[in-house]
Design brief:
The protein has about 140 residues and is mainly alpha-helical. Helix 3 packs across helix 4. The chain is elongated. The N and C termini lie far apart (about 55 Å).
Length: about 140
Amino acid sequence: MFPNPKLKRIPVGYHRDFLENYRPNVDNYLTSEDKDRLVKIGKTQGDNQPAGTYAQQILNRLLIDLSWNSSHLEGNTYSLLDTELLIYEGKPAGNKSPKETQMIFLRSPQQMGMIPFRAACMQYNLCIYNFCNQT
């Protein structure tokens, strides 16, 4: 994960004069170009998307990873890319068995996409139950 083990890293000190002379909201550590580049990188894709679009994209990615990982744990040999192609485009990998293809489909986002909905319903039902059973 890390290129160098913690004990082999070279210690780095602080620039004491920078810290002592720093004025919050006046001085900048980053250049204007660096800040503009970070703003550009941090923007979501499209400002005019409906609410929840970005969250849905993250959820779809999570569900693809979950489908692949859970199938992989059971011995499925589909690659992550093959899993994504199968789920989004319906293209099974040519060298895989129908059993492996079915295993991916059973863990597809269409199947697992109900997880957040069910969790929200459970939370809502719990709130209603608690409210109705107050003494």
